[in-house]
Amino acid sequence: MTEALQPVTKSESLKPPHIVVFPFPAQGHLLPLLDLTHQLCLRGVNVSVIVTPGNLTYLSPLLSAHPSSVTSVVFPFPPHPSLSPGVENVKDVGNSGNLPIMASLRQLREPIIHWFRSHPNPPVALISDFFLGWTHDLCNQIGIPRFAFFSISFFLVSVIQFCFENIDQIKSTDPIHLLDLPRAPIFKEKHLPSVVRRCLQTPSPDLAAIKDFSMNLLSYGSVFNSSECLEGEHMEYLKQRMVHDRLFVIGPLCSIGSGLNSDSGSIDPNLLTWLDGSPNGSVLYVCFGSQKALTKDQCDALALGLEKSMTRFVWVVKKDPIPDGFEDQVSGRGIVVRGWVSQLAVLRHVAVGGFLSHCGWNSVLEGLTSGAVILGWPMEADQFVNAKLLVEHLGVAVRVCEGGETVPNPVELGRVIAGTMGEGGREVAAKAEEIRRKTEAETEANGSSIEDLQRLVTEFGKL
Ligand SMILES: O=c1ccn([C@@H]2O[C@H](COP(=O)(O)OP(=O)(O)O[C@H]3O[C@H](CO)[C@@H](O)[C@H](O)[C@H]3O)[C@@H](O)[C@H]2O)c(=O)[nH]1
Q1: How far apart are CA 255 and CA 365, in angstroms?
Q2: Which among 120, 294, 403, 453 is least buried, having the fewest CB atoms inside 10 angstroms?
């Protein structure tokens, strides 16, 4: 017996698509994916966000902005022998937390399947971080498409992909020539992305890591928080290597209107008053992302360098040991903030003209879209690759130091800071301003990023 087809009612056909978002719990990954989620909700998508209890707090702005279209799906954090109880975010332990947290989250596979199968209106698609490559298989199992979210550059993905495809060849050389890539870049082994270095340093390649990464490019679609004007060549290079044409270049996400984090009202009132009283473009903002704390020697050198530069500055520190008496010595000219600031809001303040940064990809995008000149000190992970893009390809930054353990020469550091924040930085500041204008155009109403965002929403509507 055949069932009579029920006509689709108007309200059913207009039902907003429901998707599930699975961020990786590191601020550099989580925050941009929540930004993307916010933009999707603004365009009528309903979203369930997978999270563990210790990370629920980071969803608050999103939940407040979209009380009826965002739902948190909270799973207990699966324990791992090398993580202390309570650690659920890389921010709590630093870069070494990536691998154990990745391993822990893999154990959520069965609970997610169970949640999906018992949901009255299951999601039509998953967007998950590129550190969660295993969700490609999960999606195959439950029969929905997976979109990989890249909180990193096209250039970085090209470098990793090339290295993994040529792992035996690059194992025996240093420096490494990536001849296949646009501009044929050369990297010292110690400046390759951490994920590649880990594979090179083990006696046999870490096949699990390689497989996990390659799952990303096999997924149904890819979303990049990047931009054609920053790295069009690498975007084209990767497009040729993707098995599909569902590439959505939606960036810089931090510049897309009505964002979650750009409001200067989120700056601490004391800091805001101080910034308001500083001349335009005079302040150097110093922050090395959400994970890295400097050693005592590094702090001493940086403090002395800042002192010698005679530049106004805001230095955001975590557990970094700031030298005794430093804050009094620089009182009025510099401020040390302990903990967390709303970085984007600070960078957007008219008083900020420079950004001493580790070149994490989000910091890069936030700095560039604010028109700040970046003074790069790449330390680990993708940061050397990003610094090469900024300094050598785009000419919008200067390198002030290199390496996670390196102690800079304070005199030289002070000289470069003073020069770059002054007359000597004019050329690079003009290029930074040109890039700021280009990224702004991409994120305006008819810009390519907004078109791709709308294309993604349309794609969900078709599933
Ligand atoms: O006081 C702070 C410190 C950080 N942030 C924000 O935290 C994010 C930090 O991200 P990022 O600049 O990318 O640095 P990490 O936290 O170090 O991010 C990791 O993840 C990134 C994305 O994969 C990589 O590019 C980095 O190298 C890697 O260290 C940015 O959005 C910042 O605005 C704040 O808002 N306030």
Answers
A1: 9
A2: 120
